[in-house]
Protein backbone atom coordinates (compact mmCIF):
# COMPACT_ATOMS: atom_id res chain seq x y z
CA UNK A 1 0.00 0.00 0.00
CA UNK A 2 1.24 3.51 -0.75
CA UNK A 3 -0.14 6.98 -1.24
CA UNK A 4 1.10 10.39 -2.27
CA UNK A 5 0.59 13.58 -0.30
CA UNK A 6 0.70 16.60 -2.62
CA UNK A 7 -0.40 20.25 -2.58
CA UNK A 8 -2.10 19.94 -5.99
CA UNK A 9 -4.09 16.74 -6.49
CA UNK A 10 -5.15 17.38 -10.09
CA UNK A 11 -1.68 18.38 -11.27
CA UNK A 12 -0.11 15.35 -9.57
CA UNK A 13 -2.72 13.07 -11.14
CA UNK A 14 -1.87 14.43 -14.59
CA UNK A 15 1.88 14.08 -13.98
CA UNK A 16 1.83 10.44 -12.84
CA UNK A 17 -0.75 9.60 -15.49
CA UNK A 18 1.71 10.69 -18.17
CA UNK A 19 4.86 9.23 -16.56
CA UNK A 20 3.50 5.87 -15.41
CA UNK A 21 0.38 5.42 -17.52
CA UNK A 22 -1.96 5.65 -14.54
CA UNK A 23 -5.65 6.44 -14.54
CA UNK A 24 -7.01 8.59 -11.72
CA UNK A 25 -10.39 8.17 -10.06
CA UNK A 26 -11.31 10.96 -7.62
CA UNK A 27 -13.20 9.97 -4.49
CA UNK A 28 -16.16 12.27 -5.04
CA UNK A 29 -17.33 14.97 -7.42
CA UNK A 30 -16.52 18.64 -7.84
CA UNK A 31 -13.44 20.82 -8.08
CA UNK A 32 -12.57 20.57 -4.38
CA UNK A 33 -12.06 16.79 -4.27
CA UNK A 34 -8.96 16.18 -2.17
CA UNK A 35 -8.00 12.67 -3.14
CA UNK A 36 -8.65 9.47 -4.98
CA UNK A 37 -7.01 6.36 -6.36
CA UNK A 38 -4.54 5.64 -9.15
CA UNK A 39 -5.22 2.62 -11.35
CA UNK A 40 -3.42 0.69 -14.08
CA UNK A 41 -5.25 -1.75 -16.37
CA UNK A 42 -8.23 -1.61 -14.06
CA UNK A 43 -6.21 -2.45 -10.93
CA UNK A 44 -5.46 -0.14 -8.02
CA UNK A 45 -1.78 0.84 -7.78
CA UNK A 46 -1.65 3.78 -5.32
CA UNK A 47 -3.59 6.45 -3.47
CA UNK A 48 -3.44 10.23 -3.81
CA UNK A 49 -4.39 12.88 -1.28
CA UNK A 50 -4.14 16.58 -0.53
CA UNK A 51 -1.18 17.41 1.70
CA UNK A 52 -2.67 18.89 4.87
CA UNK A 53 0.00 18.43 7.55
CA UNK A 54 1.60 21.79 8.32
CA UNK A 55 5.28 21.88 7.41
CA UNK A 56 5.20 18.47 5.73
CA UNK A 57 6.93 18.00 2.39
CA UNK A 58 5.19 16.39 -0.58
CA UNK A 59 6.16 12.72 -0.44
CA UNK A 60 5.09 9.15 -0.95
CA UNK A 61 4.02 7.27 2.18
CA UNK A 62 4.67 3.53 2.11
CA UNK A 63 2.46 1.21 4.17
CA UNK A 64 3.69 -2.22 5.26
CA UNK A 65 1.13 -4.93 5.96
CA UNK A 66 0.75 -6.10 9.57
CA UNK A 67 -1.70 -8.39 11.31
CA UNK A 68 -2.29 -6.07 14.28
CA UNK A 69 -1.76 -2.30 13.98
CA UNK A 70 -2.21 -1.78 17.72
CA UNK A 71 0.49 -4.30 18.61
CA UNK A 72 2.78 -2.75 16.00
CA UNK A 73 2.19 0.67 17.53
CA UNK A 74 3.26 -0.62 20.93
CA UNK A 75 6.38 -2.15 19.34
CA UNK A 76 7.23 1.16 17.63
CA UNK A 77 7.03 3.03 20.94
CA UNK A 78 9.11 0.40 22.77
CA UNK A 79 11.79 0.66 20.07
CA UNK A 80 12.04 4.45 20.33
CA UNK A 81 9.89 5.42 17.36
CA UNK A 82 7.12 8.03 17.31
CA UNK A 83 3.43 7.55 16.58
CA UNK A 84 2.34 10.22 14.09
CA UNK A 85 -1.15 8.86 13.45
CA UNK A 86 -2.54 6.31 15.94
CA UNK A 87 -4.29 3.18 14.67
CA UNK A 88 -7.39 4.30 12.80
CA UNK A 89 -10.16 2.36 11.08
CA UNK A 90 -10.86 3.33 7.46
CA UNK A 91 -14.41 2.03 7.36
CA UNK A 92 -14.45 -1.64 6.32
CA UNK A 93 -11.31 -1.37 4.22
CA UNK A 94 -8.69 -1.76 6.95
CA UNK A 95 -6.85 -0.16 9.83
CA UNK A 96 -3.84 2.11 9.44
CA UNK A 97 -1.22 3.92 11.52
CA UNK A 98 1.71 6.18 10.70
CA UNK A 99 5.04 6.49 12.49
CA UNK A 100 8.53 7.94 12.48
CA UNK A 101 11.52 5.71 13.19
CA UNK A 102 13.98 6.90 15.90
CA UNK A 103 15.94 8.97 13.35
CA UNK A 104 12.84 10.56 11.83
CA UNK A 105 12.13 8.36 8.81
CA UNK A 106 8.37 8.23 8.19
CA UNK A 107 6.49 5.05 7.34
CA UNK A 108 3.09 3.48 7.90
CA UNK A 109 1.36 0.15 8.38
CA UNK A 110 -1.83 -1.36 7.01
CA UNK A 111 -3.93 -3.98 8.79
CA UNK A 112 -6.11 -5.35 5.98
CA UNK A 113 -9.87 -5.48 6.15
CA UNK A 114 -11.73 -5.81 2.88
CA UNK A 115 -8.77 -4.19 1.11
CA UNK A 116 -5.47 -6.06 1.08
CA UNK A 117 -3.66 -3.04 -0.39
CA UNK A 118 -2.58 -2.42 -3.97
CA UNK A 119 -3.83 -4.83 -6.64
CA UNK A 120 -0.88 -4.67 -9.04
CA UNK A 121 2.86 -4.91 -8.32
CA UNK A 122 6.08 -5.89 -10.13
CA UNK A 123 4.74 -4.95 -13.57
CA UNK A 124 5.35 -1.78 -15.61
CA UNK A 125 3.41 1.06 -14.05
CA UNK A 126 3.36 -0.39 -10.54
CA UNK A 127 5.41 -0.63 -7.36
CA UNK A 128 8.31 -3.08 -7.56
CA UNK A 129 10.60 -2.11 -4.65
CA UNK A 130 10.86 0.17 -1.61
CA UNK A 131 14.01 1.87 -0.39
CA UNK A 132 15.23 3.66 2.72
CA UNK A 133 18.04 6.20 2.75
CA UNK A 134 19.31 6.58 6.31
CA UNK A 135 22.26 8.06 8.18
CA UNK A 136 22.56 4.93 10.38
CA UNK A 137 21.95 1.58 8.67
CA UNK A 138 22.67 -0.47 11.80
CA UNK A 139 20.11 1.47 13.84
CA UNK A 140 17.54 1.17 11.06
CA UNK A 141 18.06 -2.59 10.79
CA UNK A 142 17.61 -3.00 14.53
CA UNK A 143 14.47 -0.86 14.65
CA UNK A 144 12.61 -2.29 11.66
CA UNK A 145 13.74 -5.82 12.45
CA UNK A 146 12.32 -5.51 15.96
CA UNK A 147 9.08 -3.82 14.91
CA UNK A 148 8.26 -5.65 11.67
CA UNK A 149 10.32 -8.83 11.99
CA UNK A 150 12.35 -8.16 8.87
CA UNK A 151 15.50 -10.15 8.02
CA UNK A 152 18.43 -8.72 6.09
CA UNK A 153 21.07 -9.66 3.57
CA UNK A 154 24.00 -7.30 2.94
CA UNK A 155 25.76 -6.90 -0.40
CA UNK A 156 28.70 -4.78 -1.46
CA UNK A 157 27.80 -2.12 -4.00
CA UNK A 158 29.70 -2.00 -7.31
CA UNK A 159 32.85 0.07 -7.19
CA UNK A 160 33.21 -0.29 -3.44
CA UNK A 161 30.62 2.44 -2.85
CA UNK A 162 29.34 0.98 0.39
CA UNK A 163 26.87 -1.69 1.48
CA UNK A 164 23.30 -2.19 0.32
CA UNK A 165 20.99 -4.13 2.64
CA UNK A 166 18.21 -6.25 1.13
CA UNK A 167 15.03 -6.60 3.20
CA UNK A 168 13.14 -9.88 3.53
CA UNK A 169 9.66 -9.82 5.17
CA UNK A 170 9.00 -11.90 8.25
CA UNK A 171 8.23 -15.54 7.51
CA UNK A 172 9.01 -15.35 3.78
CA UNK A 173 11.92 -16.78 1.76
CA UNK A 174 14.72 -14.58 0.42
CA UNK A 175 13.27 -14.52 -3.08
CA UNK A 176 10.35 -12.52 -1.65
CA UNK A 177 12.58 -9.61 -0.61
CA UNK A 178 10.66 -6.37 -1.10
CA UNK A 179 13.12 -3.54 -0.50
CA UNK A 180 16.47 -2.28 0.62
CA UNK A 181 18.15 0.24 2.85
CA UNK A 182 21.35 2.16 2.40
CA UNK A 183 23.47 4.34 4.65
CA UNK A 184 24.17 7.73 3.08
CA UNK A 185 25.78 10.98 4.18
CA UNK A 186 23.71 13.70 5.80
CA UNK A 187 24.07 15.85 2.69
CA UNK A 188 22.21 13.18 0.73
CA UNK A 189 19.26 13.48 3.11
CA UNK A 190 18.72 17.18 2.38
CA UNK A 191 15.41 16.41 0.63
CA UNK A 192 13.91 15.47 4.01
CA UNK A 193 15.76 18.07 6.06
CA UNK A 194 18.47 15.62 7.11
CA UNK A 195 16.08 12.89 8.21
CA UNK A 196 15.98 9.39 6.71
CA UNK A 197 13.30 8.81 4.11
CA UNK A 198 11.60 5.99 2.25
CA UNK A 199 10.73 6.17 -1.42
CA UNK A 200 8.98 3.86 -3.89
CA UNK A 201 10.53 2.28 -6.96
CA UNK A 202 8.14 1.93 -9.90
CA UNK A 203 8.68 -0.55 -12.70
CA UNK A 204 8.53 0.95 -16.20
CA UNK A 205 8.90 -0.51 -19.66
CA UNK A 206 11.31 2.22 -20.81
CA UNK A 207 13.35 4.18 -18.26
CA UNK A 208 14.49 6.86 -20.71
CA UNK A 209 10.96 7.51 -21.95
CA UNK A 210 9.73 7.83 -18.35
CA UNK A 211 12.54 10.29 -17.56
CA UNK A 212 11.70 12.35 -20.66
CA UNK A 213 8.09 12.57 -19.47
CA UNK A 214 9.21 13.58 -15.98
CA UNK A 215 11.23 16.49 -17.37
CA UNK A 216 8.59 17.52 -19.91
CA UNK A 217 5.93 17.77 -17.19
CA UNK A 218 7.93 19.89 -14.74
CA UNK A 219 9.65 17.22 -12.70
CA UNK A 220 13.41 16.75 -12.34
CA UNK A 221 15.99 13.98 -12.23
CA UNK A 222 18.41 13.61 -9.34
CA UNK A 223 20.33 10.66 -10.78
CA UNK A 224 20.38 8.73 -14.04
CA UNK A 225 19.20 7.25 -16.20
CA UNK A 226 21.96 4.72 -15.69
CA UNK A 227 22.43 0.98 -15.81
CA UNK A 228 22.87 -0.86 -12.51
CA UNK A 229 24.44 -4.28 -12.91
CA UNK A 230 22.02 -7.05 -12.03
CA UNK A 231 19.23 -4.55 -11.36
CA UNK A 232 18.24 -2.70 -14.53
CA UNK A 233 18.18 0.82 -15.91
CA UNK A 234 17.02 3.34 -13.33
CA UNK A 235 16.63 7.01 -12.49
CA UNK A 236 15.88 8.86 -9.26
CA UNK A 237 13.22 11.49 -9.96
CA UNK A 238 11.27 14.29 -8.32
CA UNK A 239 7.74 15.21 -9.32
CA UNK A 240 6.91 18.91 -9.85
CA UNK A 241 6.26 19.34 -6.11
CA UNK A 242 9.42 17.59 -4.87
CA UNK A 243 8.14 14.10 -4.03
CA UNK A 244 10.86 11.56 -4.83
CA UNK A 245 10.51 8.23 -6.58
CA UNK A 246 12.57 5.88 -8.72
CA UNK A 247 11.75 4.42 -12.14
CA UNK A 248 13.32 1.08 -13.04
CA UNK A 249 13.29 -0.87 -16.30
CA UNK A 250 14.58 -4.36 -16.96
CA UNK A 251 17.49 -4.55 -19.40
Automatic annotation (TrEMBL):
Pfam family, one: Glyoxalase_6
VOC domain segment(s): 1-112, 126-250
InterPro entries documented for this protein: Anthracycline_SecMetBiosynth, Glyas_Bleomycin-R_OHBP_Dase, Glyas_Fos-R_dOase_dom, Glyoxalase_6, VOC_core
The protein, known as: Hydroxylase
Organism: Streptomyces caelestis
Amino acid sequence: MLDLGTPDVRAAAAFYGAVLGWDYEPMGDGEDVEGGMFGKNGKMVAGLGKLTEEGARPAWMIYYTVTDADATTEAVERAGGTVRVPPTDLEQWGRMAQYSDPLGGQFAVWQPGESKGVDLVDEPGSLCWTELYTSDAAAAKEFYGGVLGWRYSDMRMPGGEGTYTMIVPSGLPEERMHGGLMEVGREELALAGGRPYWHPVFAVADCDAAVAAVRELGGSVQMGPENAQGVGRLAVCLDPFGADFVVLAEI
